[in-house]
Amino acid sequence: MKTHQKILSVAIASLLLTGAVVPSIADDLEDELQDIQGQIDESRSSQESWQQIIEDVAVKLKAIQADLDAANARLKSIQDEQAKVNAEIRQTEEEIRKAQAYLEERQKVLNLRVRSIYKFGQLNYLEVIMGAKSFSDFANRLELLKRIIQSDYSLILEIQDQKAKIEAKKAELEQDRARLDALAEEAKKVQAEVAKKKAEQQRVLDNAKANKAAAAQMEQDLIARSNAVKDLIQERIRQAEAARQAQQEE
Asked: What pLDDT score does 16 carry?
């Protein structure tokens, strides 16, 4: 057994002296080292690819964010207008309520006058005229009747005008509400679409960052493995060198 070991040691020492042993004892590790280096190169290339995607998506996100800011500003502008119009609506509705109350009051006055005329007919007017004591008194009484008739007519016109104004205000309020509702819905739709695009691109960006980070971590792991393999190669060489020196000492 000792004779076999001695022969083997002499053979190894002989190979070391010729330079043939050092490469052979590390061939498997050298192959592994080359394979690791190839994986490191692939990892770095992958990181570059993901970085390019990150930069491209960042540009897209910047443009999308500008669109989203514009959409948000547009919606806020409409909402501010809605708040203003709603305040005006409340104020106008109060004016309408007061106008309606006044209209109803004047309507009552007119109704009372109409009922009085219906009840007494033209007798009131004739009594006023026939009761005049002089031509001057007659003229004055006639002018008074004209004013009463004119007042009745003006009252009717005023009531009709108030009704028309109330109806116009109601119609205008309804149009304002409808217009703002339509604008708000359109603005919300645009905002939602832009926000959706942003979310989609953000997912792409997050995915690219995650993949780049994974590739970077793989690179670090491979570098650590490469260093370990290099250390192992050095250890094998050291062991072989030690064995050669031991043979020489014998």
From this structure: 43
